[in-house]
Amino acid sequence: MSISLALIVRDEEDTLGRCLDSLAAAVDEIIVVDTGSQDGTVDVARRYTDQIHYFTWMQDFAAARQFAFDKAHGDWIGWIDADDIVIGAEAMRRLVASAPAEVGAIHCPYVISWDGYGNPTCQFWRERLVRNDGSYRWQGRVHEVLVSNHPWQVQNSDEVVVEHHPAIHGEDSTQRNLAILESELAECEDAPPARLLFYLGREYADAGQPERALAIFARHLQCCTWDDERYQALLHVAEIQLRLGKLEEAADTLWQALKLCPHWPGAYFALARIYYFRQEWHKVIHWTEIGRAMPWPQTPLFINPMDLCANWIIYYTNALYRLGDLSAALAWTRQALSIYPGDAAHQHNLAFFQQAFTEVSRQKRQGAGDFDSVGSMMAKNSKSPAPAEMSGSRSQRGS
C-alpha cells in the first residue's frame, strides 16, 4: 500500500523542513500546494519533492486541500500542516497495510496546545489517513473536515501522534477564521450548518466577544442533532456565563449538559467550580468526586486533558480545607504540584496547609482540639488558601 502526503502551505519556511523531516521516510509521495508564499517556503519544499503546485488563495481551506488531494496517486492519502510534526510516523505503513477492508480512515491524536509545564491543553482525534478512492472530500472553508460519501468504518490509532507547533510570530488565526466563518454564514444565513455555528461561537468566545458567542451557540443548539457537539457547546456557554458572573444561568446550562452525556466528567467539574464561588463546600466535593469517577469522553471533539485531571484541584483543595480535611487537602495539593511544579497558588497552599496541619497536630497533642474541629479553628485565622479564579481553567485552551 502506497501513501501520498498532501500539504497546503504559505510562508512556512521556518517550520516546513521540520515537518517533512518528521515523516518523509514514511510516505511514497509528497504533494505541496503553495497558496501565495512570499518567503522561501517553495525552496524548502523542493528539498523533499518535485510535486509542487500553486493554488490561488480564495479564503477556503477545503478548496485548497482538495486541490492537493486531487494530485495524489497513492492508495492512501495523509495530510498535515507545515507547522505540525509527526511522532511515530514509521507506523503509518503498517497501519494502512493492516487496515481491514471496511476501514476507510485512520484517526490519530492531534495535540495542538500545551501549558507552560508541557502538559497538553487541547487534543482530539483527527482523520489523518484516508483511502484514495475519491470517496473522501474536504468540506468547510475553515475548520475543514474530510467527509466520505461511502459508509467507511474508522480506526483509531495512537501509534502515530501529530503535534502542532506554530511559529512564534505566526498569523493571528482567530481574526482570519472569524472573517472566513462570517462570510460563510452570510451565504447560508437561513439554514447554516450546525458545525459552522459551533466553530463560529468558539471563535467569538476566543476573540473576547461573549454576547455574540452566546447568540451563535443558541442558534447552534437549536439545530444540532449530535449530542457530543451539543454537550461541548453547552460547556462553552456555561463557561461564558460564569465569566460574566451569571452563576445561576451557568448552573442551569450545565444541568442541560448532564442530561445529554451524564457519563462525561466535564459538567461535573464545572458544577463544582460554580459551587466553589458560592462557597458551598460540600457540593464542591460532591460534584468533584462524581467527575473523578467518570471515564474520559470517547469523542472526536476537543478535549483539554488538564480540565479532566488537574484544573479542578484548586477548588477541591479549598473545599477540603474549609471542611476540615487537611490531610486530603495536602495530598491533592502535592498531586497538583506534580503536574504544575511552579504553580504559585498550589505552592502557597502547600505551605499554608502544612502550617495548618502542624498547628492542629500540636493542639491535638495538647488536648486543645482534634482534626474534626480544624475548620472552625482555622476560620479564626486571618489567612486563607490561595483562591481559585473566576476565569476557570488554569491552562490555555487550544482552538
How would you describe what is shown here?
The chain is an alpha/beta fold and 399 residues long. The chain has a domain of 162 residues: Spore Coat Polysaccharide Biosynthesis Protein SpsA, Chain A (Alpha-Beta Complex). It has 16 helices and eleven strands. Strands 1, 2, 3, 4, 5, 6, 7, 10 and 11 form a nine-stranded mixed β-sheet that branches. A two-stranded antiparallel ribbon has the order 8-9. Helix 6 packs parallel to helix 8, helix 8 runs parallel beside helix 10 and helix 11 crosses helix 13. It is globular, with a radius of gyration of 25 Å. It starts with a strand and ends in a 20-residue tail after the last helix.
